## 1
Amino acid sequence: MKPKNQSKIKARREFIKKASLASGAMVLPSLGTSAMANVFNEKKLKIALVGCGGRGTGAANQALEADNHVELVAMADLFEDQLNSSYGHLYEKYKDTEKMQVKQEHKFIGFDGYKKAIDLADVVILATPPGFRPYHFAYAIENDKHVFMEKPVATDVPGIRKVLEAAKLADQKRLNVVVGLQRHYQENYIKTHELIKSGSLGKIVAGQVYWNSEGVWVRPRKSGQSELEYQMRNWYYFNWICGDHILEQHIHNIDVANWFIGEYPLSAQGMGGRMVRTGPDHGEIFDHHFVEFTYPSGAVISSQCRHQPNTMYKVGEAFQLTNGTVVTNDAGAAKIYDLSGKEMESISNPKGHNPYQEEHNRLFASIREKGAINDAENGAKSTMSAILGRMATYSGKVIRWEEAMNSNLQLMPEALTWDSPTPTKPDHEGKYPIPIPGKAIIL
C-alpha cells in the first residue's frame, strides 16, 4: 500500500481486532451448549427433520448439539430406507440421552409426510432436494415454525417468488430462519466482509468465484424402479428437483460475491455444456458453466463451476478492489494483498470453528432470546443469482435480473404422487433432452 494509506491500514487492523462476529443474520454471540443451559430458559424445543439424506442427518445432529433442551420428535422422507438409515445414525449417537424422541408413528413416508412432521415441531429442518423447498418452507412459516433450510431454496423462478413471499411472512411473525449458506457463519469470511465494509480496501471492481471439482455421486437405475423413483433417487442430475450444479453447489461462491459487493447481479451472460458427463445417468445438466455477472455498481464477477475428473480443483473466491485484493476459501485463511501483490494480512478460522455447527448455535440462541434472524430473502436472491447464471449458459444470451424474475416457467410441480409423470422425460433410447444454447427455453 502507498504511504498515505498507512493510517487506514492501522485503523483497519484495530477495527478487525474489535469487530463482532455478527454480520448479516448473525446478531448474537456464539454460545456453547453449557452456556446456553445457564442463560436461556429450559423449554424443550421440538425438532422435525424433513429430508433424511446425508445433509439432513448432519443438520439434525448439529441441531441436537446446539442446545441442551431440544428433542427430535418427527422425521419425514419419501423413502423408508433413507429415513431408517438416518434414524439409525442419530439413535446410535443419542440413545443414552433424552434428545431422540421419534416414535414409530412419527416417522412419515411419502409426499405429504412433511406436513405431518412439521405439525409436531417448534423448529423444522428442511433438507430435501431443493425443488421441494418453496412448498415445505411456505407450509412451515404459515404454521409458525422456526426453520433451518438448506440451500438452494428453489429450482425455478415461481419457487423463488414463493420463498420471498414466505420470507416476508416470517418477518411479520418474527420467526427465525437460517439458510445453509454457512460462509455467513464462518469467521474468516465474516471478518473479511467486515474489512470490505470498512472501506479501507476501497471498492470491489472485479472478482472470480470458483467451484471446480471432479463432481458428485451417481445413482444408476435399478430394476423395477419407476421413472419418477429413478429421478428422485438420482436427483442431482434433473433440473426440476436439483437445478444443475451451478445452483446446487456453486451458489456458495456466487452468494459470497453478492454478500461482499452488497448487491445482486443486474445481468448475466455465459456459456456451458456437457463434455464428460454425457450418459443417461447424468440426466440433463451441464458439466461446466462459465458466467459473467454484472452488478449495479459496475463490478463484474467471473464465475466458473466444473464437474470433470482429472482437472484443476478450485473452490473459493478472489476480489480485486481499488486498494488491494482479497482471496477467500472455506478451507483455509483469507488473504489480503496490497496493489503490488504483497500479503498484508491472513485471517484464519479459530481452531475447532465449524460454520455448519455455528448456524444451528445461532438459530437456537436467537429462538431462546426471542430474536429474529431471517436469512430467507438473501437465500432466495442468491438462489436466483445462480438461476440467472443457468439461464445465461443454457440460452447463450444476456439475461437481465428483471426479465428473469418475471418468468413463469415452472420446473417443479406443486404437487406430486407416485403416479405423477416426471417433468423431464427420456426419449425412446432413454436419453434426456439437453439444453442447447440459442434454442433452450429458459423464461
Note: The chain is about 35% helix and 20% strand.
## 2
Amino acid sequence: MTKAEVITKISEKTGIQKDDVTQTVEAFFKVVKDSMAEGENIYVRGFGSFINKKRAKKIARNISKNTAIVIDEHYVPAFKPSKSFIEKIKNSQSVKELAPQD
C-alpha cells in the first residue's frame, strides 16, 4: 500500500477532505523524522515505537579492492511494533492466506 492509498483510505473512513488528510500525514512524518534526528524516540501506545538503534563500530571489507573499511558507531531508525499490533497480525486470516504452504 502506498502513502496515497493510505491517505485515500483515511479520507474515506473519516470523511475528511484528502487535502487535509495529506497535510496531517505529511506533518506526522515530518515530526517523526525531526524528532528522531534530535535523538528522541516516539512511542505510540497500541501501535509501536519509532526508535534510534545504535550500531557499534565495526570493520567491513571492500571486496572489489580487498581492503578493510572502518564503519564508525552510528544510529539507524527502526520501528518496533507493540504486542497488540503483533498479535493482530499473527491472528489475521489475510496474512495467513499469503503465507507459503509447506
Note: The longest helix spans residues 18-37.
